[in-house]
Amino acid sequence: MSDTIAAISTAQGEGGISVIRISGDSAFTVCDKIFKGINNKKLADMKGYTASFGKIVSDGEEIDEAVALVFREPLSYTGENVVELSCHGGIYITKLVLRAVLDAGAVPAQAGEFTKRAFLNGKIDLSEAEAVIDIISAKSRSAARAALCVKEGAVRNKIDEVKNLLLSTAAHLSAWADYPEEDIAEVTDEQLYDSFDVSIAILDGLISSYDSGQAVKQGIDTVIAGRPNVGKSTLMNLLSGCERSIVTDIPGTTRDIIEDTVIVGDVILRLSDTAGLRTTDDKVEKIGVDRAKHRLKQCGLLLAVFDYNRSLDDDDKELIESAGEVPCIAIINKTDLDKQLDTEYIESKIKNVVYLSAKSGEGRAELVKAVEDIAGMDNFNPSEGVLSNERQRQAVLNSLNSVKDAKNALEIGLTYDAITVSIEEAITSLLELTGERTSDEVVDRVFHNFCVGK
Ligand SMILES: Nc1nc2c(c(=O)[nH]1)N(C=O)[C@@H](CNc1ccc(C(=O)N[C@@H](CCC(=O)O)C(=O)O)cc1)CN2
Ligand SMILES: Nc1nc2c(ncn2[C@@H]2O[C@H](COP(=O)(O)OP(=O)(O)OP(=O)(O)O)[C@@H](O)[C@H]2O)c(=O)[nH]1
Ligand SMILES: [K+]
């Protein structure tokens, strides 16, 4: 019998109400010691998914009025008996109620222990548990939507599909090999190729969801670069919707890197506005220019800004060259002014070109579209599953490689035994992802990232 655990599940701070969650075999008897329901109704006698109003009493003293929600195993978040006590929000009262629950026999929950129990009791798999963290930490609608899809099994379903396919293939192969005297239909090469190709397609799809998922969740490390005075700071302010960078008509206004996080359509950009790129004798400005050049070579997205109203110079050309090294959008700014720029040259060098007036906002929608395209948003379909972290990506990658090994073994005519070994490796990697076969260490690491009460 495992301990009955308790923790404050709402944020620490003053609010309307706070919730103390209690989970475990003795949740009802523990809470009945301190919760006095109206008409002396005992929590232990209540049906699951019902509520009672009452008082929290400790050492004969009334602490607060509260509502108790009862969940009966297995129908609860953790799969165990659960009581949720909602008391008046307030740090002092809430801690007092938690103390009373602990005095009555519960033990303090570890970080993520409720969700860990949900996992151990088979309510959710590891991908779904990890999605819980993503839901809590989501900073945009699309990040929240993606996390919710995963919580509802989008990744688990894909993995199950591949797993079942590979399991039946491996079973068929070994039955056929092990019981030659039985009347088992021979596995045809077509069937094998078919199950490998289907598996590869699904796993490939999951892998490619990862980068888009990261763009939605963590954001893309984005550098705004260009000659002095092209309008980089104005662009930054346009995207962030506030005056973040200093805009003046003096070239060389921005000298250090200014950072901000903005949501562009469905994508989060972690923007850095950099010093205008030019050769300079000013010592401080030169440091800024060097930093800008360094940053734009390692970013996830380069917004290379050009001035529609000025002709190309050597600094522009140097920037165009760097554009080949990272994902890049060329932004031709100040389209409200007369054309001086050789835009044909830029179009010939950089694939994604957007015409903009950062000052008026004209062209902003096209820029949003270009950013979403680069982040792969048109193929981003969270209901098809999004791998949410490196652990998941690695497991899928390992599985994918093993399926490819199996296919390769078939192509070069290795024995069915050799093929089966690769299929089994592929399955093992998937079981690690879902947590069906994984070490305590991995499970602990997953739940280590949770807050107490979740
Ligand atoms: N009060 C409260 N609100 C909450 C939660 C909670 O634990 N308590 N949640 C916590 O994250 C989220 C909702 N997630 C939940 C997930 C499963 C179950 C649950 O009771 N599942 C049972 C019963 C399902 C059924 O009746 O069909 C089960 O899966 O067996 C409850 C909440 C957000 N809101
Ligand atoms: N007409 C017009 N002027 C613009 C536009 N965008 C920016 N400007 C003006 O161009 C000047 C320079 O803008 P900034 O945003 O400071 O340019 P910057 O590239 O950050 O400049 P540095 O800090 O020198 O690198 C300011 O006077 C802006 O108002 C635009 O789309 N149209
Ligand atoms: K400027």
UniProtKB/TrEMBL annotation:
<feature type="binding site">
    <location>
        <position position="253"/>
    </location>
    <ligand>
        <name>K(+)</name>
    </ligand>
</feature>
<dbReference type="InterPro" id="IPR004520">
    <property type="entry name" value="GTPase_MnmE"/>
</dbReference>
<feature type="binding site">
    <location>
        <position position="21"/>
    </location>
    <ligand>
        <name>(6S)-5-formyl-5,6,7,8-tetrahydrofolate</name>
    </ligand>
</feature>
<dbReference type="Pfam" id="PF10396">
    <property type="entry name" value="TrmE_N"/>
</dbReference>
<dbReference type="InterPro" id="IPR027266">
    <property type="entry name" value="TrmE/GcvT-like"/>
</dbReference>
<feature type="binding site">
    <location>
        <position position="250"/>
    </location>
    <ligand>
        <name>K(+)</name>
    </ligand>
</feature>
<keyword id="KW-0630">Potassium</keyword>
<keyword id="KW-0547">Nucleotide-binding</keyword>
<feature type="binding site">
    <location>
        <position position="233"/>
    </location>
    <ligand>
        <name>Mg(2+)</name>
    </ligand>
</feature>
<feature type="binding site">
    <location>
        <position position="248"/>
    </location>
    <ligand>
        <name>K(+)</name>
    </ligand>
</feature>
<feature type="binding site">
    <location>
        <position position="84"/>
    </location>
    <ligand>
        <name>(6S)-5-formyl-5,6,7,8-tetrahydrofolate</name>
    </ligand>
</feature>
<keyword id="KW-0819">tRNA processing</keyword>
<comment type="function">
    <text>Exhibits a very high intrinsic GTPase hydrolysis rate. Involved in the addition of a carboxymethylaminomethyl (cmnm) group at the wobble position (U34) of certain tRNAs, forming tRNA-cmnm(5)s(2)U34.</text>
</comment>
<keyword id="KW-0963">Cytoplasm</keyword>
<dbReference type="InterPro" id="IPR018948">
    <property type="entry name" value="GTP-bd_TrmE_N"/>
</dbReference>
<feature type="binding site">
    <location>
        <begin position="273"/>
        <end position="276"/>
    </location>
    <ligand>
        <name>GTP</name>
    </ligand>
</feature>
<dbReference type="Pfam" id="PF01926">
    <property type="entry name" value="MMR_HSR1"/>
</dbReference>
<keyword id="KW-0460">Magnesium</keyword>
<keyword id="KW-0342">GTP-binding</keyword>
<feature type="binding site">
    <location>
        <position position="123"/>
    </location>
    <ligand>
        <name>(6S)-5-formyl-5,6,7,8-tetrahydrofolate</name>
    </ligand>
</feature>
<feature type="binding site">
    <location>
        <begin position="229"/>
        <end position="234"/>
    </location>
    <ligand>
        <name>GTP</name>
    </ligand>
</feature>
<dbReference type="InterPro" id="IPR027368">
    <property type="entry name" value="MnmE_dom2"/>
</dbReference>
<dbReference type="InterPro" id="IPR025867">
    <property type="entry name" value="MnmE_helical"/>
</dbReference>
<feature type="domain" description="TrmE-type G">
    <location>
        <begin position="219"/>
        <end position="376"/>
    </location>
</feature>
<dbReference type="Pfam" id="PF12631">
    <property type="entry name" value="MnmE_helical"/>
</dbReference>
<keyword id="KW-0479">Metal-binding</keyword>
<dbReference type="InterPro" id="IPR005225">
    <property type="entry name" value="Small_GTP-bd"/>
</dbReference>
<dbReference type="InterPro" id="IPR031168">
    <property type="entry name" value="G_TrmE"/>
</dbReference>
<keyword id="KW-0378">Hydrolase</keyword>
<feature type="binding site">
    <location>
        <position position="229"/>
    </location>
    <ligand>
        <name>K(+)</name>
    </ligand>
</feature>
<feature type="binding site">
    <location>
        <position position="254"/>
    </location>
    <ligand>
        <name>Mg(2+)</name>
    </ligand>
</feature>
<dbReference type="InterPro" id="IPR006073">
    <property type="entry name" value="GTP-bd"/>
</dbReference>
<comment type="similarity">
    <text>Belongs to the TRAFAC class TrmE-Era-EngA-EngB-Septin-like GTPase superfamily. TrmE GTPase family.</text>
</comment>
<comment type="subunit">
    <text>Homodimer. Heterotetramer of two MnmE and two MnmG subunits.</text>
</comment>
<dbReference type="InterPro" id="IPR027417">
    <property type="entry name" value="P-loop_NTPase"/>
</dbReference>
<feature type="binding site">
    <location>
        <position position="454"/>
    </location>
    <ligand>
        <name>(6S)-5-formyl-5,6,7,8-tetrahydrofolate</name>
    </ligand>
</feature>
<protein>
    <recommendedName>
        <fullName>tRNA modification GTPase MnmE</fullName>
        <ecNumber>3.6.-.-</ecNumber>
    </recommendedName>
</protein>
<feature type="binding site">
    <location>
        <begin position="248"/>
        <end position="254"/>
    </location>
    <ligand>
        <name>GTP</name>
    </ligand>
</feature>
